């Protein structure tokens, strides 16, 4: 790994949605567009370059509110980006998420043929995301952005997903979320784990050195510099199935809470097992200065406290000695809940669609999102667990198993059903503000 150096990011040219943690509580909206007229699509890019919030704008009149815009490969083609430029993008991006379904484990119920239209289709060209601390400020942000795409008949809104913080301030399964956020060198945004050194800017933003000393670029340079890749996924959560599985495999309410914590790696309050192994600690879970500051290797290498196969340890092994240096696979993750909460104590599905819209930000689609999804979430070889999948979001054929290291005998949870189903998603590119202007000025 390269040594830490002082890097000055061009924050006024980087979209704020790349680097900023999401507010809590929050309200969010995803809107997808299709470009039917190239000239109108380019006009949209020109207008959005003036509407998108930059990472330098941390004192917005609307508070922790921002609007971001991203494009799919089909969207770049619709704008007339030259073929020689398109070929400099990551090959995973050029293929698109639907074409990568087998590698990602999106099979069976999660296969693209079962996705919610138009997700994964060539019709998705532009993704607009607005995020705010509450509904009123979200609507104000959308009011500011709406002139950018209104009165452009060659640009059509084809899908929208509204998201909101649940009254419990948890995700649909009942866990506090939005806890972990890496520190990025030169960003000015603090990380949530004070024991983690800031990561190189090039892990998240194109045009800067990454952890290996390389610099990701596109051609022409103005198109790539200060941009990044974004992965959007709509994940439906089977809350009633999850609750029933915990109840049916626990000896009582306290054991049910413990099983839930072992599966996630945190108690539902957000308190990590690493810091509170025996019982929940809501004060710790609610403390952003303490609830994510821990490591694994020195105190818990085998996973007796935080199982190696639990969700948070798979997604971020921290300092654990695993295949592939964990710092090379770090991403910025954000989840926003959609749909009504299932009332507490209800164990039968009510038919409502609920879950998370997930966004993953990184400069390396292959060794970040795809590696974590295929090697850490959908396999267990990296920590000696064979083909065991992530107990919450792991995907594949048939039920899975989950092992909890324990003395004198380990505890095994058998036949875990699929708790999360992929409803669709997109691989996108988030241009810089100057790249948005470049796209708007393209000629034929």
Automatic annotation (TrEMBL):
GO terms for cellular component: cytosol. The keyword Iron applies. InterPro entries: Dimeric_a/b-barrel, DyP_N, Dyp_peroxidase. Keywords: Iron, Metal-binding, Oxidoreductase, Peroxidase. Residues 27-143 form the DyP dimeric alpha+beta barrel domain. This is Dyp-type peroxidase family protein. Its cofactor is heme b.
């Amino acid at each position: 790994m390269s040594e830490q150096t002082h890097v000055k990011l061009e924050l006024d040219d980087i979209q704020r949605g790349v680097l900023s943690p999401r507010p809590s509580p929050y309200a969010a909206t995803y809107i997808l567009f299709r470009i039917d007229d190239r000239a109108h699509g380019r006009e949209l890019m020109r207008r959005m370059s003036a509407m998108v919030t930059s990472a330098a704008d941390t004192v917005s009149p609307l508070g922790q509110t921002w609007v971001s815009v991203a494009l799919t490969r089909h969207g770049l083609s619709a704008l007339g980006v030259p073929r020689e430029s398109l070929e400099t993008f990551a090959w995973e991006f050029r293929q698109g998420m639907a074409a990568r379904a087998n590698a990602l484990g999106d099979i069976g119920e999660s296969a693209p043929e079962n996705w919610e239209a138009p997700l994964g289709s060539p019709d998705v060209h532009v993704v607009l995301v607005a995020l705010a601390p509450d509904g009123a400020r979200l609507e104000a942000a959308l009011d500011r952005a709406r002139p950018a795409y209104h009165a452009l008949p060659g640009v059509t809104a084809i899908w929208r997903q509204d998201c909101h913080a649940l009254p419990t301030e948890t995700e649909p399964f009942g866990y506090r979320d939005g806890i972990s956020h890496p520190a990025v060198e030169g960003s000015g945004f603090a990380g949530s784990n004070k024991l983690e050194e800031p990561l190189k800017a090039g892990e998240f933003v194109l045009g800067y050195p990454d952890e290996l000393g390389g610099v990701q670029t596109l051609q022409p340079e103005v198109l790539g510099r200060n941009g990044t890749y974004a992965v959007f996924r709509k994940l439906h959560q089977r809350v009633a199935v999850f609750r029933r599985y915990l109840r049916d495999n626990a000896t009582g309410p306290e054991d049910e809470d413990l099983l839930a914590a072992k599966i996630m790696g945190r108690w539902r309050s957000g308190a990590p097992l690493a810091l509170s192994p025996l019982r929940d600690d809501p004060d710790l879970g609610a403390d952003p200065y303490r609830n994510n500051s821990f490591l694994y290797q020195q105190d818990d290498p085998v996973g007796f406290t935080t199982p190696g196969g639990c969700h948070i340890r798979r997604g971020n092994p921290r300092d654990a000695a695993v295949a592939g240096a964990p710092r090379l696979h770090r991403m910025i993750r954000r989840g926003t809940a959609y749909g009504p909460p299932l009332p507490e104590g209800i164990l039968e599905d009510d038919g409502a669609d609920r879950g998370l819209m997930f966004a993953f930000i990184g400069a390396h689609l292959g060794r970040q999102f795809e590696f974590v999804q295929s090697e850490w979430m959908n396999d267990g070889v990296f920590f000696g667990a064979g083909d065991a999948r992530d107990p919450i979001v792991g995907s594949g054929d048939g039920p899975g198993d989950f092992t909890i290291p324990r003395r004198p005998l380990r505890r095994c949870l058998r036949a875990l059903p699929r708790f999360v189903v992929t409803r669709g998603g997109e691989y996108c590119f988030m241009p810089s503000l100057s790249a948005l202007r470049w796209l708007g000025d393209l000629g034929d």
